Amino acid sequence: xxxxxxxxxxxxxxxxxxxxxxxxxxxxxxxxxxxxxxxxxxxxxxxxxxxxxxxxxxxxxxxxxxxxxxxxx
Length: 73
Known about the structure:
By secondary structure, the protein is an all-alpha fold. The chain has one domain (5-70). The chain is built from four helices and no strands. The chain is elongated. The model has no long low-confidence stretch (mean pLDDT 90).
């Protein structure tokens, strides 16, 4: 099973979910609750590398809003 496409897809989906939850938790602490628009945009992200960059940007002192965070390429 570890070599199957289905297994790999499930792992990928799990990674995406974990990173999104982390972004929401850290972002909430830093910027307050996310708007529905922010939630939709984050839930819509499927590029693991971009989500990792967004997560890393949360640590930057210069970041001051969800909007700035979501401008991460």
